[in-house]
Design brief:
Chain lengths: ~280, ~375
């Protein structure tokens, strides 16, 4: 009974203190400052573009901010979180933490929860900082799109935090974690993921481009977090899809349906966390 | 009940890649049982496997073979249950982020679901004052004290302390030993490793000596001395000199020599009393070294200066000091024999140096 009560209590304790660690280490201040500035500058720029006949087509606040935030959220998630656990191992903090009654999966899940809260707060700060500028400069603010963007960006942040936590538990050094995180950003955000199957087919076909497109290549391409994010947006707020960095499928197959795309994002979170907890359990500290 | 039980524990560190054959076996088929309520010392040369053993106990490392049970729980399966009841001062530790000392202690209390007063724990280890600073700014000794405070949270049934006096000044080491005794008196089992043999002797009921990944011996320090065949010097302050008592103690099996010194040569009486008090579990731990004792206990007439002579310098019926050189196993019998004949006002025992004892059981360097 004590075990059942103790585990969730300790998970929340770990997550709370891990999030507070980000504040103690001034990560929160840096993130909020950066994203707040992005929100202010981009919205102000958008307001200048819509005024005095410079641009005929007005751009809303959310639309102008969304693409930069979709680029920045994975970057800060991977950059700030990928070294979290590996650095604790290097410094000996993990030895102290695991001398207390925390299960290793609590360390993984607690880091995911705590750091997701921190990273997900950053785009919300950008939107909040942009709001008064938009209202003062007559930039359009659609409350529905604003809420949809906040929810979608929070899910995107959690997905990349989960990937970063997995990197942090698997890497044996801070340097390796940093390099892997950079590689993950390039592969996922700059569409390297969907190019990978095409490269494999190119090699299999004797270094010649195949004449047909295989279904499995499309399925693999749809499992990229950024592609799945774009496909999911089509179901939440289709207008946001146009503002994102990846475009949604016009005639979606089953694996490109918004619901399936949402499940793929959740799958990334679950799979990354599961692999991290499994590998971390078997790791010598 | 056994607080700690290792059976056939082997730990092998494998090399990766093409160098897999270069693995290192840190522990080989280790069997160890620490009884509930003991203060158990864990000794061994550098690289003997002490920290590896502790890491296995705490589930930091998974054993390659064998079973590990702590407080009745299987460690690999129930390590959280173990750590709920265990206070840990690990080796190779570091601060958690930028947290202050107080935040560390509060975190430990909350993690254990305890209701300790952080101020009380911090005060007990002498860390009230710097507790509002980030631990990253602490010295090694301050960090050791803080981690001890964290280990004490929740009144654990077992304390596992890996080199607890590392970085501590003499006062800090003494306070650490006092806390270990207090915790043991409360009912906690204490398991700690140390390179400092005097620290181990000062508090431990039994010790294990580990060498090259294997348990060489497990016993009390006294028994180890007997087994190593070392000699001891027992100095008894008697109320009145009695030649019959001297003759009787000479007849005790294992007694090598007996001499009686003049009571005028009692300059080291305070030290002697202190040493006697230490073995009796008293607060005063000041113990004279071999050289101190040799200097201060010099007989007035040259008797007993290493020439094997057994001469008496005491006047019958007057206070005297009886110095008995004997095999370690004969100490108790010698003391009892004198005690049966004349009132004994003080006893001091000087044993085989621990370094010699340690060297007798290991092949390494402490």
């Amino acid at each position: 009974m004590n075990r059942l009560v103790g585990t969730p209590r300790r998970l929340l304790l770990y997550a709370r203190e891990d999030a507070l660690d980000a504040r103690r280490e001034h990560q929160v201040h840096t993130l909020w400052g950066l994203f707040g500035l992005v929100g202010l500058v981009i919205t102000y720029t958008a307001s200048q573009g819509t005024g005095a006949g410079v641009r005929s087509e007005p751009v809303g606040m959310v639309a102008s901010l969304f693409a930069p935030l979709v680029l920045l959220v994975p970057l800060v998630a991977l950059g700030f979180v990928a070294t979290t656990i590996v650095e604790k191992r290097r410094s000996g903090a993990l030895t102290v933490l695991l001398g207390l009654p925390f299960a290793r999966r609590t360390v993984v899940l607690g880091t995911l929860l705590g750091r997701s809260a921190v990273i997900a707060s950053a785009p919300l700060i950008a939107l909040l900082a942009a709001l008064p500028v938009a209202l003062a400069t007559d930039v359009a603010v659609d409350p529905g799109r604003l809420i949809a963007a906040a929810v979608a960006l929070s899910l995107l942040a959690t997905t990349f935090v989960a990937i970063a936590v997995a990197i942090s538990t698997l890497a044996r050094s801070t340097m390796l974690a940093t390099v892997t995180a950079f590689g993950a950003y390039v592969v996922f955000v700059f569409d390297g993921w969907s190019q990978l199957p095409a490269v494999i087919r190119y090699v299999i076909h004797g270094f010649e481009r195949p004449e047909t497109t295989a279904t499995w290549v499309e399925v693999v391409a749809a499992t990229s977090p950024i592609t799945a994010f774009a496909n999911m947006l089509a179901g939440i707020s289709p207008s946001l899809t146009d503002a994102s960095i990846a475009s949604a499928a016009e005639n979606p197959e089953l694996w490109e349906e918004p619901a399936v795309a949402g499940a793929i994002l959740v799958g990334w979170i679950v799979a990354s966390t599961g692999i991290a907890a499994w590998r971390f359990r078997a790791t010598d500290i | 009940m056994a607080a700690i039980e290792l059976r056939g524990v082997t730990k092998r560190y494998g090399a990766s890649g093409l160098r897999k054959s270069n693995g290192v076996t840190a522990l080989r088929d280790v069997d160890l049982r620490v009884e509930d309520g003991e203060i158990f010392g864990f000794l061994g040369p550098n690289g003997a496997g002490k920290s590896t053993t502790i890491d296995v106990l705490l589930d930091y490392l998974a054993p390659t073979a064998g079973s590990v049970r702590v407080l009745g729980h299987d460690v690999p399966e129930e390590s959280v249950r173990v750590r709920e009841r265990t206070g840990v001062l690990p080796d190779g530790h570091g601060p958690i982020g930028e947290r202050t000392g107080r935040e560390h202690v509060e975190f430990a209390i909350e993690a254990k679901g305890a209701d300790d007063d952080p101020d009380e724990l911090l005060g007990r280890v002498g860390m009230l004052g710097p507790e509002e600073y980030p631990v990253a700014q602490y010295s090694k000794g301050m960090t050791q004290r803080l981690l001890l405070a964290m280990a004490l949270a929740g009144e654990p049934d077992l304390l596992i302390l890996d080199e607890p006096t590392t970085g501590l000044d003499p006062n800090g080491a003494r306070e650490m030993r006092e806390i270990i005794r207090e915790e043991n008196a409360r009912g906690a089992t204490v398991f700690f490793s140390s390179h400092i043999l005097e620290q181990v002797e000062a508090v431990c009921d039994r010790v294990a000596i580990l060498d090259r990944g294997e348990i060489v011996t497990v016993d009390s320090i006294e028994n180890l001395r007997e087994r190593a065949g070392g000699t001891a010097t027992v100095t008894l302050e008697v109320a009145n000199h009695d030649e019959t008592a001297v003759e009787r103690v000479r007849a005790v099996d294992g007694v090598v020599s007996v001499r009686v010194e003049s009571p005028a040569n009692t300059v080291s009486a305070g030290r002697v009393a202190a040493a006697a008090g230490k073995r009796a579990g008293g607060e005063n731990e000041q113990r004279p070294s071999s050289s101190q004792r040799t200097d201060s206990a010099e007989p007035t007439d040259g008797a007993g200066r290493g020439d094997g002579a057994e001469r008496s310098d005491g006047d019958a019926g007057k206070p005297a000091r009886v110095v008995v050189t004997c095999e370690a196993r004969a100490k108790a019998a010698a003391i009892a024999t004198i005690h049966d004949c004349v009132p004994v006002t003080d006893v001091a025992i000087e044993e085989t140096p621990l370094e010699d004892l340690f060297a007798a059981f290991t092949e390494g360097v402490a």
